[in-house]
């Protein structure tokens, strides 16, 4: 077993400051285009957004994407053409399966800025009916352990209920796990067996790691969390805002050690 861990440094991500919106793009998005970082398997967008109070993304359309928001701080008001209206808070995960087409808006609710990760994946087939799901995961649930917050339809513990417990159901071969890792604490993760998609299966596995940039917008002054990622024959230290591509084989073990002085909020995607 072996693994390659390839850094995606925060300072090299696409970014924009529109006043009302400060955003970083892991993959090509809007005016930021980078052929070396267009997507990773079915993972297409990871934007870390900060939206100022009483502003946001006005009503606009999407289709043929699975779109989910992972709320870090503040409150995000969601409205859509399916009749959903909801205010999302820290620990909430909201998933919109855009399918054949939806329109929605995302606006900072209340007096404070909202900080959230906006994530898009490519569905395993087109023409799906639009759907909407929300889940909540407390800080205590995520403390020093992995919690699956999004997982493929049909996977273990995945419910098709609009609200409920367990991971939100995504119609892509993607599993998102999250943790709040304390200083001097180590977690492991085993690269899982592949999901069989249209008869295709492989022992080669992909994962993507993202460290939430909790201490501020400017990556050059971000402090606190520092996480050492190690796998068979590979090692890398990431700070807030950094990410990494992982290429490995089924059963390879990854270790995550918080070598910094503050809690690290980590997102881990197993992708195909």
UniProtKB/TrEMBL annotation:
InterPro entries assigned: Pirin, Pirin_N_dom, RmlC-like_jellyroll, RmlC_Cupin_sf
Coiled-coil intervals, chain numbering: none
CDD domains in the record: cupin_Yhhw_N (cd02910)
Xref: SUPFAM superfamilies: RmlC-like cupins (SSF51182)
Domain Pirin N-terminal: 16-120
Cited Pfam families: Pirin
Protein family according to the UniProt entry: Belongs to the pirin family.
Protein name per the record: Pirin domain-containing protein
